[in-house]
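Example 4.3 (complexes with small molecules)
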Amino acid sequence: MRTQVCIVGGGPSGLLLAQLCHVAGIDAVVLERRKREHVLARIRAGVLEQGLLRLLEEAKVPTRMDSHGYPHDGTVLSFADGEVRIDFRAHTETPVMVYGQTEVTRDLYEARDATGGVTLHEVEDVEIGNADLEGDAGCTVSFTHDGTRKEIACDYVAGCDGFHGVSRQNIPVEKRQEFERIYPFGWLGILSETPPVHHELIYANSAHGFALCSMRNESLSRYYVQCPLTDKVEGWSDEAFWDELRRRIPARHAETLVTGPSIEKSIAPLRSFVCEPMQYGRLFLAGDAAHIVPPTGAKGLNTAASDVHYLFQALKARYQEADSAALATYSETALRRVWKTQRFSWWMTKLLHRFPDTDEYELRIQRAEIEHLATTPAAQATLAINYVGLPY
Ligand code: RFL
Ligand code: PHB
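Answer. The structure with P-hydroxybenzoic acid bound is encoded below.
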């Protein structure tokens, strides 16, 4: 087999890149380790920036955004002594879109099916060969599929295989630097077929820890509570979850919260991570393969999308104008935005969570930061500008 770009990973980053390439006449093959149903069953992001919406349009992906997407003009942050509404529209004239990652991924798979592009599922033992070669010689990706060892010759490899993927490991250790923060808590999340407690998201900082009220539609809610890393999902009954959530959100919402059985429940650890550089020879990393943020700022999928944008622009220049300059500086370009979303996600996490080792001094600093935010329009504007998405 031969292709121009071999994309390792069929999550949102890989599929979006594949569709953009298709529209630009660049040939791509997608290799995914899991079954399609597995990829589609993962409940993850819920808030999309305009940049990602524009990319889906550019990739000519028909979405169900008109019927299933919910534009949000603001979000609520709640604290022990009150609430602050961050008005996105007033500060940025830009809403965000509440539309599940599951839906985005389904739309992308359907668009890929329609184009007849090659996507191989259940590939194992992916190995990238000759990634370091400069000049005209291409590289290879070998893998096991249907019990047979196969090889694809290609010009470039896009490593879109998420945090636990293999692509990043192909950058020699001495050529890569990794930056990491592990947070001392996780998020216990549930999905329930109940109406959302409020029409906007609520990020709650409470004495009992962080909580988030989110949603997918008028009858499907997504809620999270900060929990110790040692907790197990089996140890959390639905009742215990609802009780804990009620303790953490403003009383007026706790009183009207509609509860019901959870249809999904999981614990996600929180981590910040960046790999530099995001490229090596003919290999280019995009999305979670190169960086991770704690979900507090809703930036993971959105930052994956901005990487895909920069990588696609660079590939287009290379194939349509024989200009490789943007490819050579891809990592530098992408990392500038990556670090800004790292900063924002880290800051939101510090602002809203209870850290187990926090002393009284740090609690006072957190309270001062909150008061500053609640009383300073410029601080609210900064939050809004980052939340709706920095320009590409
Ligand atoms: P993914 O989605 O992990 O996809 C990578 C794909 O690669 C496959 N793979 C391999 N394929 C072939 N060979 C291998 N060796 C492979 N190894 C792995 C995997 O099976 C998978 O299909 O990475 P991608 O595409 O870069 O997308 C990143 C996003 O999924 C992620 O950043 C977001 O989900 C993060 N995130 C959020 N982001 C937002 O922008 N807004 C949000 O509101 C938001 N909320 C969240 C989140 C993540 C969460 N969790 C569970 C970590 C909420 C949560 C709870
Ligand atoms: C979600 O709806 O899953 C969600 C929303 C906002 C976040 C994180 C997760 O910051």
